[in-house]
Automatic annotation (TrEMBL), chains A, B, C, D:
Pfam families: FmdA_AmdA. This is Acetamidase/formamidase family protein. PANTHER family: FORMAMIDASE C869.04-RELATED (PTHR31891:SF1). Signal peptide: none annotated. One of its GO terms (molecular function) is hydrolase activity, acting on carbon-nitrogen (but not peptide) bonds, in linear amides. It comes from the Bacteria. Transmembrane segments: none annotated.
Amino acid sequence: MEPAMRIASGDIVVTETLDAAGTNARGERVADRPNPMNGPIHVAGAEPGDALRVDILRIDPARGTGWTRSALSANVLDPEYARNLPPRDRAEWIIDREASTVRLEAPEAALKHLVLPYTPMIGCFGVAPAGGEAISTATSGRNGGNMDYRGFAVGCSVRFPVAVPGALFFVGDCHAAQGDGEISGTGIETCCEVEIRLTVEKRRTIGWPRGELDGRIFTVGNACPLDQALQHATTEMVVWLKSEYGLSEPDTAHLLGQTVRYDVGNVFNPAYTMICSLEKKWLPERPKTA
Amino acid sequence: MEPAMRIASGDIVVTETLDAAGTNARGERVADRPNPMNGPIHVAGAEPGDALRVDILRIDPARGTGWTRSALSANVLDPEYARNLPPRDRAEWIIDREASTVRLEAPEAALKHLVLPYTPMIGCFGVAPAGGEAISTATSGRNGGNMDYRGFAVGCSVRFPVAVPGALFFVGDCHAAQGDGEISGTGIETCCEVEIRLTVEKRRTIGWPRGELDGRIFTVGNACPLDQALQHATTEMVVWLKSEYGLSEPDTAHLLGQTVRYDVGNVFNPAYTMICSLEKKWLPERPKTA
Amino acid sequence: MEPAMRIASGDIVVTETLDAAGTNARGERVADRPNPMNGPIHVAGAEPGDALRVDILRIDPARGTGWTRSALSANVLDPEYARNLPPRDRAEWIIDREASTVRLEAPEAALKHLVLPYTPMIGCFGVAPAGGEAISTATSGRNGGNMDYRGFAVGCSVRFPVAVPGALFFVGDCHAAQGDGEISGTGIETCCEVEIRLTVEKRRTIGWPRGELDGRIFTVGNACPLDQALQHATTEMVVWLKSEYGLSEPDTAHLLGQTVRYDVGNVFNPAYTMICSLEKKWLPERPKTA
Amino acid sequence: MEPAMRIASGDIVVTETLDAAGTNARGERVADRPNPMNGPIHVAGAEPGDALRVDILRIDPARGTGWTRSALSANVLDPEYARNLPPRDRAEWIIDREASTVRLEAPEAALKHLVLPYTPMIGCFGVAPAGGEAISTATSGRNGGNMDYRGFAVGCSVRFPVAVPGALFFVGDCHAAQGDGEISGTGIETCCEVEIRLTVEKRRTIGWPRGELDGRIFTVGNACPLDQALQHATTEMVVWLKSEYGLSEPDTAHLLGQTVRYDVGNVFNPAYTMICSLEKKWLPERPKTA
C-alpha cells in the first residue's frame, strides 16, 4: 500500500478520521471496510528495530453526532443470557462541543436523555505489521490496531514496534466516549480531528505497544482470551523493567505484585486488549535514556 | 461446621485474622489449611433468598511483618517465559503502623528498601455456599471466597447471597497491600484486626456478590478464564440494573457500554475474579428501597 | 459423610444408579441434588498416596427409558447464535435391551425415530477430594467427578488419587449414549446396573485420574477452559511417562508430539474434561510393576 | 499477489511442498518465511459465495528425512511445569519409503530408534481470506491456513469459502506424521509431493472449512482458546445441518448431542483448531445435491 503522506520524525499531523461505518464529518459514506483508517503515514528514518512514538495532542469533534448499538454483545454475558438480548439497533447521540458532552437521543428509553462527558479516544491506530501481513482493522496485534482502550486519549503517548521501513502509521475509529471493553460493540462512533506527533525512537526494540499516561507507564497485550492478552502485556512489562530499568525477576515480582494495575481495552473484537500499568514513582532511576 | 459465633443482624464484629500460612499475630503457626478463615459466624434471621451485607469499617495491622513470594506466577506470563522464573522464595516486609507503610527487606534486590503505602484489604471472605458444598478457601464462587480484590478495603460494602440459615460468614487472608491480580501469588500476607458490620437484607436475592465503593456500585464474577468471570459479573450487573433500577436491555447497553469499568481481582487462584462497576451518578432514582 | 458400604480391595460391587434428575429405575424421584451418587463406598486399606483402580465390568440398562434436552447448550455455539436456541425441553428415548438400541420419541422432529446403538457410560464417578472439600457432583477435579467422557464404558479401567482413608468412592449419572462434550447438557439420562471392581494400588501416587482403554493409556484433566483441562491432562501424562516408563522430557516430546490423541469429555459443566491418550504399543517396557 | 498457476475447476494439481523451514527436497533453503506455501493457484470460475473443494489424492515423501523439536510446547503444560522444559533442539527422522515408516535418530534418547508409520498430512492449506487481508501462514481462520489436523490426509476432501475471484488456493507444510495438537510445535516436518483435485462448487456459501473423511462429515473452527474454536466448528455444523439437511434446532440437539465427535487440530499456533464431526449414516437424505 502506497503511503498517503510522508513526514519527518517529530512532525505533527492533523487528520480528520472517519467513523467506524466509513462515514465522514459531512455524513457521507466514503469508505466501506470496517474501521476505515487514515494513512498510511510514512515516517522518514523509521526502520525495523525502532519504535514509533505517538503523542496524542488533541481529539476534537468533527461532527455533532455519534452512534452506538443498543444491545450488549452476547460474548460479555453468560451464554444462555444471550437469549434475552434485543436487536442490535442503532442509537444516536448528540455531541455538544460547547458543553463538552454527549447526549443520548432515545425517546423510548428510560435513560432517553442520558448526558455523559465528551471523553474522546482513538479506537484504532498502529503501524504496519511484520512479515508482509495486511491484517483487518477489526483486530489487533503487536503492531497495535483496533484496541479500543479509553486511555488512548489526549495526553497519552504510545510507542509501536516498527516492522517495515517508514513504519506506515494509520489512525481512525475515534469514540466520543466509551466504557471499558467496548461491550456494546461500539463506543460513541464519530469523526474527529486528531492532532498527533510522530517521532522515531531509534534502536528501541519493543515487542508490544508501550506507553505513558497519567503518571504511569503501561504495556498492551492483544489476544484472545483475556488471560492471554494479560500474559502478553505482563511479559512485555517485565521485559521493559529488566532492559531499561535494570530490575531482576524478583524485583519485578516485588514491584508488580504489589502495585500493578490492569485495564481492559476491548473484549469485543477477535483479539481482546489488556493494559498492564505501573506508577512511575515506584520506578528506579533509568540507567539509560530512551 | 458449627458456628464459632452467633450474632444479630447489624452487629459489629472485631476479629483478628491469621495470615495465608496460618500464622497468627504472635508468629505462631496455629492452622494449616491454605487461607485459614475466622468463622463461621451465624447471623440470626439470615435465610436463603436474603443477602448478607458486610460493611468493612477497619483493617488494622495486627503484627509488624508481612511476607510475599519473590517470583511472578507462571500463568500471568507468556508460557515459554516461565523458563526464566526464579524460585518462589519468601520475602519479608516491615509494616510501619505509625507511617502507615510497608517496607521490603530484600538486601540483594535493586529495590531492597521499596516503601509502599499500607493499603489493607480482605483477601478472602463470604458465606457458606449452596448445596452443602464445602469448598476450599483457595478458590471462590457465587458465595465469595478467595477473590483478592484490592477494593475490598475500608469503606467498601459487599453483599453475599445467603444460601444456608444464618449465612455462616467467614473472613481471613488479609493483605497489607496488593496489586491487581495477585500476580506473584501473594499480597503482602499478614494478620489484621478487622472490624465489620454484618446486616441481613431480607428478600434481596442476588446471584453473585454485589457492593458499593467510592461512589460506584459493583458486581463480582468468579470463574476461569477471566472472560467467564467478566461474563458473570456483567450479567449480574445487567440483572441488578433491570430488577432494582428498572432499566431495559437497551438502557443497560447505553449506560454500561459507555461508562462501565472492569477491575481485575486475582488471576492466580483456580477461579479468577473480575469486578464490573458503574458510577452511582449515572443511575436513575431507584424505584424501591433496598 | 458416613460410608454407605465397606468393602475389601478387589471386591466387585453391583449397584443401581439413579438418573441425573434423581429418578430411580421405577420412575420414582428419590433424590433431589443434581447427579445424585451411589456411595460413598469405603475400600479397606486405601490411604492418601494410594490410587483406587476402578474396572468397569458391566453397565446394563435398569429401565426402559431415558431423556435428553432438546437444545444445544449456548456455551458450545457462537455467542450471538444463542438468540436462535429453542427451549430446553425434555425429549424421551426408548431403551431396547434386546436390540441394544436407544430410540428417540419426538413425533414432531424430522429425526423422530432416530435409533442409536446402546453405548452406555458412567457420567460421574470418583473419590472424596482432598482437604475436606465436599464438591458439587455437577463439577469435577483431581478426584474425578462429573466428567461425562464416553470412554468411561465397559472395559475401561481408571485410577483415582486417594485423598482420604478408605477412598470413599462414589458413582452415578449413567448415560445410555452420549456424544463428545455432552453438548446438549445431557447424555441419554437413565438408570443402570453397574458392576465394577475396586482395587487399592498401594503407594501409586497420581495427580489426576489415569486409565486404560482399547489398547491405550490415558490421563484426565478437569478445568475450564478446555485449554487448561488439556494442560492438566498432558502434564499428568508427561509425569506418568517419566516416573513409570523412565522417559526423559525429549523422549516424551518425540513420543507424544507425533502420536498423542485428545478426546473431549464434557464442555457443559463448570469444569470441562479433556483426555490425553497414547497407544500402549509405543511404550517402552515398564521398569517396575504397577 | 500474482497467481503462480491458473487452472480450470476439476483439474488435478501435483506440487512439491517445502518444509516448514523453507527447505526443499534437495535440502536447499529456498524460502524464509514460516511455513512457505505453494501457490497461489487461480481456479477459473471461483467467485465469492462459492466453495472450493479440495480432494487430497496423494501425499508422497519427496525426501528421505524429516525433523521435529525435542521439547513439548510450554502452552500445553501446566504453567509452572514449563520450568522443567529442555531446549527446543532439533531432532532428525529417517523416512523409509519402502517400509512406509519414519524412524527417530536420537542416539541419546531412550526411544532412540522409535519407528512410527508414515501417516502424511497437509499442515497448511486454504484460500485467500476476505477483505484483502494477507495473513501469516503461521495462523488460520475461516479461509483455512495452518490447521495441522492429522485428518487432512489422503482420502479427505475439504471445502473452503471462496472470498476472492479465482479462490487463490495455497498449500504447504506437510508432515510425515503428527499427533493431535502439534504439541511439540512440529509434526515430522518434511517435503512431499502432493496430488490434489480442485473443484469449484458454485453458490455453496459456507462460513468455515467443511469436509468429509472416513464416512464422516466435519467442520473446522480456528480460534483461541480451544473453547472458541469448538464454538465456531459446532455452529458451522448446526448451520450445515439446517441448510442442507433440513434439521431443526431440536433435531440437531438430538443428533449432535448423542453422536458428535471432536478432534483437536493444533494447539500451538496463534489460532487453535477444533474439528466437529458426525457419521454420515445418521444423516437424513439430503434434500438437494451438493
